[in-house]
Amino acid sequence: MGIYFLLLIVGFCWGQYNPNTVSGTTSIVHLFEWRWADVALECERYLAPNGFGGVQISPPNENVIVTDPWQPWWERYQPVSYKLCSRSGNETEFRDMVARCNNVGVHIYVDAVINHMCGASAGAGDHATCGSYFDANTEDFPAVPYSGLDFNDRKCKSRSGDIEDYQDVSQVRDCRLVSLLDLALEKDDVRSKVAEYLNRLIGIGVAGFRLDAAKHMWPGDLKAVLDKLKDLNTTWFPAGTKPFIYQEVIDLGGEPIQCSQYFGNGRVTEFKYGAKLGTVLRKWDGEKMAYLKNWGEGWGFVPADRALVFVDNHDNQRGHGAGGASILTFWDARLYKMAVGFMLAHPYGFPRIMSSFHWSRYFVNGKDVNDWMGPPSESDGSIKPVTINADTTCGNGWVCEHRWRQISPSPTGGTTAATRWRSAEAIKASSSSTTTSGS
Ligand code: 5J7
Ligand code: CA
User: Fold this and answer.
1) Is 320 touching ligand 1 by the criterion CB < 6 Å?
2) pLDDT in tens, 131-154
3) What is the set of active-site residues?
4) pLDDT, position 310
5) Cβ(74) to ligand 1 under 6 A?
6) Whose CA is nearest to atom 13 of ligand 1?
7) pTM (2 d.p.)
């Protein structure tokens, strides 16, 4: 009786911090830019048998088709509506993926782009992935619908209307991030439109959300949106299960916006993790593996039960963004395997494995001029399928780090030393979480 009461309390407080992965699994993988049809196949043929708990997918909603440069990966971070059609697939394919992955115990986490719509430079006449009409000049998005009143413009106090000063909290949250039209999340009708989108995804069966650009939204506005969310679909999840929330907050120190401001909403992305681990494994700044002894909070990271950790992500693997040159990626294969292996074995935080596509990296004056390149595509713009070679690696330009022997959580279908260590630590951590995980 007492123990059940305790479990109930833990379950309640744990809420949006719990990854909602099937017991025994301890990580998720970001299948960056994969087609829904390929994600479904990967859940069945590889992820379920090898102990992956879930998949972070690219934004599933309609976005602007950018033509200069040609269909860059970042066009998917420029929404036009919340219709479920993108280069990865249509709504039918999306629903099929979610059901098939859930049916084999692999859950789906949606990259939710809710801070903004497309860039101000996208004009009337530009195309979107579902064919919806929109006009960025007049801030007209009838397919949602949003109109000029739903954007922050007048609230922004910078000269250009864009974020100019990261030391100014209001600017970072109320002005345009690189000209992207900034949604007025203080308005209840905007909150409701966003919540309606997320609730539609919950109804289909997704297990949680990565909140893109969370740093650019007020924590209280996010909370108001999250308070409108339903519990997960009971076809696959116990009644009363809250969606897993992890917020993209890039906080390497030195700015007034800090990860801790977001703890009340869910977990946060701990960008110091990959930046520091890269420094250690590259032996920069006199760092040594021995210093990893107190890895985690001891290094100034957020509390373990608030952290979503990763060696690299889709942005900083391109040499820009948080962490800069120390970030390890598949291009540094040997050190990368060591880093991801260490992450999966170490109990701190909930880990996300990156799974990438190749691009023709080309440095000019230290900058990769091809960092914009989108996924392997056919000449008609459709994304190439992921093919599987005889030796289980991927073809067609897909890197599939998650299939690398040293990375795959459980290559034999059994339990690796890495997952065993984590499970043991997880048990220890959960027995103390009643005191640490207040909501
Ligand atoms: C925001 C931050 O607070 C931050 O610290 C950071 O490193 C990156 C960003 C950032 O987030 C975005 C989220 C989106 O949903 C859409 C976006 O377009 C962005 C975005 O552009 C972005 O910043 C870019 O990358 C930073 C390293 C630069 O400092 C920024 O100036 C910005 O660079 C811009 O990139 C160029 O100025 C502009 O010319 C170019 O068109 C644009 C191309 O878009 C991106 O590179 C997208 C990046 C992106 C990053 C993310 O973390 C993410 O989750 C999604 C997209
Ligand atoms: Ca904003």
Assistant:
1) yes
2) 999 999 999 999 999 999 999 999
3) 212, 248
4) 98
5) yes
6) 213
7) 0.93
